[in-house]
Amino acid sequence: MYRNLELVLVDNGSSDGSVEFTKTAFPDAKFVCNARNFGFAAAVNQGVRSSSGEYVFILNNDTALEPDCIQALLDAIRQWKRRRGGKVIGVAPKILLQGRPIIDSVGNAINPDGTAYNVGIGQVDLGQFDEPTRVIGACFAAAFIERSAFDRVGFLDESYFAYYEDVDWCYRANVLGYEFYSAPGAVLHHHHSGSARTLMTSDQKYYLIHRNMLRTVIKNYYYPGNLIRAARRILIHSYHVYDNSRRLKFGKVGLHAKIVGVTFLWLPILLAKNFRQNRGRASTDYEIWEIASERVPQIRAFDPETYSPFVTLDVMEEVLHHLALNVGGREHLDALLCVQAINYLVKVSSVELLPRLTARLTSVAPKNGGLLVKGLGHRIGGKLFITHKRDSYLVDQFLLNLILIMNGRTLDEVARVLVENAFTEKRELGPREVEIPDLVLPQVVFAGLRWIAAYLAKLGLIEGPALDALAS
Prior knowledge:
Number of domains: 3
Shape: globular
Strand content: 15-25%
Oligomer: single chain
CATH topology of the largest domain: Spore Coat Polysaccharide Biosynthesis Protein SpsA, Chain A
Low-confidence stretches: none
Number of strands: 18
Mean pLDDT: 88
Helix content: 40-55%
Number of helices: 16
Largest sheet: 7 strands, mixed
Distance between the termini: 30 Å
């Protein structure tokens, strides 16, 4: 465990006794206690200004570090500085969701439309991001940054209050020519949105995210492209105002109207900041966006409304795609192709698990030596979930039915069910569709199912023999 530390705790007006507890546990720490909640951005700025070390490790109060995390971060940034020099100002650790083998972030990225996301969020950690690489920035739930970088880039924009302040700061740093890299050897665990779940409503969170997204685009993207891209987003919110008023959802009308109105009110200030920011520009927006576009395009694998990862064939396919590209190995490429084939057959409706078929197959009593399903499927508000213990995952109908028929069956038997009972009658293929030969199909299905089952076992949704594919 790294010992050469200076601890700085910033408290935003809490009343649960956490300050007193922390003072007892860490009597040598520095404390900055605010009378009320000034927001995440202001608190980070206070902590950075109170620090005196060479590096600052910004850390949320809902995180837990692996013992060697700080040393791994220090080693990583020093290594990158030896290779890239003073351009490198920060590294992003691998953040996992608390109590789950699910990635929360291995750095962050931003799309040209201003949508930001945590790299890898919602994906089972199979080592697909264990190769250090350049990222646009770090998620400030846990970000390791050179202290002097704040003097050069500036501090966090306190008008954001919460959300997107880390994206804004890292984008500003990229504009000035600075670089960030992932440090996957440094691991910690995070209770995603632990504070936000209790301190704000979903509408308040939505407002801050989308207001600050617009601010980030207008402040940082090069003029006039910033206004063009912001205008597209404003038109979307304006349509929501119209659509929700037509459906008499006046709460949503006010929410979207407020985002548009506040953005126009702040426009002169944001454009003035844009002018100052771009005077020192060293990297174009396209060069920054290309940092994220070099990796496999990330599909949606995490639902911010329910805080649930998606468990679908699309997500599994992307994870295996990353493994094949970043880790290599024939087994990862084979797995990708087989899961891709099953996913393809599902999408073109060549394979279906119909409700009547699923009901008949799940009525069979479990047998010794077969798989044991641990999750419980249910539907809430049009969304399908499977829950194990206290953890929930969003699934589609096909995967939920597939999990249900796994109970009490071996992988051979499940593959036989798919091949013999679930395939619909052959239809005429489209111009871009490819037919899989009948002799190859059972082999493809079994190999793909082996990895699908191993992925589900990693989440604790099923258990049973012969689920060691992920360990190989």
